[in-house]
Design brief:
Elements: H1 6-43, H2 50-57, H3 68-79, H4 90-121, H5 123-136, H6 141-154, H7 160-183, H8 188-196, H9 201-236, H10 245-254, H11 258-289
Helix pairs in contact: 1-2, 3-11, 4-5, 4-7, 4-9, 4-10, 4-11, 6-7, 7-9, 9-11, 10-11
């Protein structure tokens, strides 16, 4: 057997996928932006060579598909060259969205764990509530978000809470499903062993079910934190928000600023990656405290 290699086993596959994405991206930049270049050349009675066509497709002010260097330049300009407090800074907008994301994630986590505990320990809740939990996710978030925002605004609730509730609506589901599976993961022989010790339901929960559910919980949290961010972004769209990544996407759509839209999308992806990584680090730390090798 060959010795494991960090570069060959982890770095090289990622670089290969990134390289393939960049190649496809560049090809589609030329393909999607070429009609505009040809149309402009035809209006000017100009003949455009292939080299000129490629050059102009990568330098359009409002391209159909921005080139990678245009997105990177926009990200640099709106993060490094702008003050964090500026409303043109992506860091500022990311912070606005992050606040609603974390609040919704916290509420969704608490709600999901409580529902999972009730479902596992109460047969009536298992048969009645679990189907409704699953059915709740069949409603498109784009359809329900405006209704929630409008209803809450009509009763005087506005600001961060309505956006957080949209994040809660999305994030509680994977936690409920994961925790139900995790709390039921101990083998029957282990549950019987706790009975022979005359353990109370509380002791069985804290000493057996809860530790066994930790891997399931953190796997669910990684999914929940990502879709909680998505929920916060979606919640900003129907409110006409002036701050947040969703507002940035909306304003870019209004004025045809595709480069701005793509920069906001990349910022959202980077923010989600950071949040998932932080949950992963917490997962490793918790397992280490429990005596499990990562």
């Amino acid at each position: 057997m060959t010795a494991p290699s960090l570069f060959r086993d982890r770095v090289l596959p990622v670089l290969t996928v990134v390289f393939a994405i960049l190649v496809v991206w560049h090809v589609f930049v030329v393909y999607l932006n070429a009609p505009f270049v040809r149309d402009q050349a035809a209006r000017a009675n100009e003949t455009v060579s292939f080299g000129q066509l490629v050059e102009r497709t990568f330098a359009q002010e409002r391209p159909v598909l921005p080139a990678p260097h245009q997105v990177i330049a926009e990200l640099w300009d709106t993060t490094v060259n702008k003050a964090i407090t500026s409303k043109r800074s992506l860091v500022y907008h990311a912070g606005v969205t992050l606040s609603a994301t974390l609040l919704g994630f916290a509420i969704g986590t608490a709600l999901g764990i409580l529902l999972a505990i009730g479902i596992v320990h109460n047969r009536a809740m298992d048969r009645s509530l679990m189907p409704w939990v699953i059915a709740s996710q069949t409603i498109p978030i784009l359809a329900i978000a405006p209704m929630i925002i409008v209803v809450l605004n009509s009763v005087g609730i506005s600001g961060i809470l309505p956006k957080a509730l949209i994040s809660t609506y999305l994030s509680f589901f994977p936690i409920v499903v994961g925790m139900v599976k995790g709390l039921r993961s101990p083998d029957t022989i282990l549950l019987d062993l706790m009975h022979t010790y005359n353990a109370s339901p509380g002791q069985t929960f804290w000493k057996l079910r809860w530790p066994a559910s930790m891997p399931y919980l953190f796997t669910s949290l990684k999914v929940a934190i990502a879709i909680s961010l998505l929920g916060a972004i979606v919640a900003e769209l129907p409110t006409g928000a002036v701050a947040g990544l969703g507002a940035r996407l909306l304003s870019g759509s209004y004025y045809g600023q595709t480069i701005q839209i793509w920069a906001a999308l990349f910022m959202a992806a980077a923010l989600a990656a950071v949040l998932v990584t932080l949950v992963g680090i917490a997962h490793v730390k918790v397992l280490q405290r429990m005596g499990v090798k990562p």
